[in-house]
Amino acid sequence: SSGINAEWPLRPGCKDSPVQLVNAFTGATLASFTAFNNVEVLISAFSVCYLSRDKVLGGYCKHVRVFDATRPGRDCTVIPVGDLQHQNNNSIVSTVAAHPTVDGLFGAGCYNSTVGLYSSQIKGVLMPFYGPQHGVTQILFSKDGNRLYCGSRMEGEIYCFDTRYNGSVLHTYHRDVQTNQRIQFDINKSESMLATGNHDGTVLLFDLSGEQSVVNQEDDGMSELRFEAHTDTVNGVSFHPYWGLLATVSGRRHFHIEDSETEENSLKIWSF
Length: 272
Known about the structure:
By secondary structure, the chain is mainly beta.
């Protein structure tokens, strides 16, 4: 194949398994991308995304690997993801995202709270981003690549960084995160709204229309809309790429210490 087909999603490997390329309609495995450490033991990716039409990017411990999607196997390019002070990241690369306009450029976040902008052609961090105090669970570029959104576990802020001017903080959005799980956020197609889950089962929708005019200021704590979606923690939100729909998912680990604790594991779709 000359490139990646839109119906071929990536399936990150579980423990001791490779990253796989699968057919979305049949579920058949089309290709596998394997990684081994210095003693030839298979290692698994903690995060994965497409770097380009024919490149697959996987996040591992201390580094990322770039695979050629047209040549499955173990051949890859290893790129160290350096710590911001010591150039030696001793942490898991928990999230990766490809820059939408610049080929070979990508962002990477780690569980040691470091976030940086990297290139597949140059070793070392190109631009560090400062703000998160806990393990980073998700990063997301805007369509033009000028802004990078970042969320962390056990931290009630989503940071919006400016990728053009030394990674300064443009805006901060507040939410309720009280667990170590990934509390996902998403941005709609027109980039006018940011949605995020909350620990209390609600969903927050923030207005992004005036974002570019706000520099180094926090929001006033008021979201455009807050609604109760579930009775348990909302850990996943996702906008439909074309229609005015929002999918939300709930669930978290319960120890059943208190009988009054509500548990819900469900998927809901909302129309706007």
